[in-house]
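pinned: reference chain
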Amino acid sequence: MEKQPGSKNVSPLGLQHKISPTLELEKAALNRGFKYIAGVDEAGRGPLAGPLMVAAVVLGKDWNSKHALNDSKKLSAKKRSQLFDVICSEALAFKIVSISIEEIDRMNIFQATLHGMLRCLNEIKPVPDYILVDGNHFPETTIGGEAVVKGDGLSKSIAAASILAKVSRDRIMVENARSYPEWGFEDHKGYPTKQHGEAIKKYGLSPIHRRSFGLEFIKKLDRSSFLQQDLLR
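pinned: its structure tokens
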């Protein structure tokens, strides 16, 4: 099984964050004889509540490269939603799976992420013969591919998967907010913000909180931090 951890597209000037995703990694795989190249990414590793969503996307050789795909965190909610519809209608194949709170608590979040990736790869049709996985961990699969650090900002396929996972999860958390209005899930989507911490302090844990996560530290978080604003966009 071919595995090549790490990104090959890192800027020598350290300006990787300014680079828009391309299809270069996909084209390289196509030139080596692979036919169905899938990008794989997740949304929801960091939140204290709600499911983990994992997506796989095969854009296909007829994909319109002019679509402005990018890391989901760099797009507005409106733009993500628009691109979600474009990806679902124009990609050759896609699969989105939800990993429940119970599974996360039983496995731990890292193993749950790998499990979600395998589910996507087992259920997407056509089955990919090469995968580009965001991050530095590659699932145990017979499918060849590579882990791409910060891949959602480098590969359009991974960016597409990040958009499907993020939009799907945000929509689920808005639905959860209707059932559990006290916690304000429609605003923070389960991430550890000051608002979220205050709600937990006042109301305790909701049925969709991850019991395996340490929750005390959220009381110290300041919602104005750059990281939280980046996650919540």
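why pinned: Residues 4-17, 217-233 have pLDDT under 50 and may be disordered. DSSP finds eight helices and five strands in the chain.
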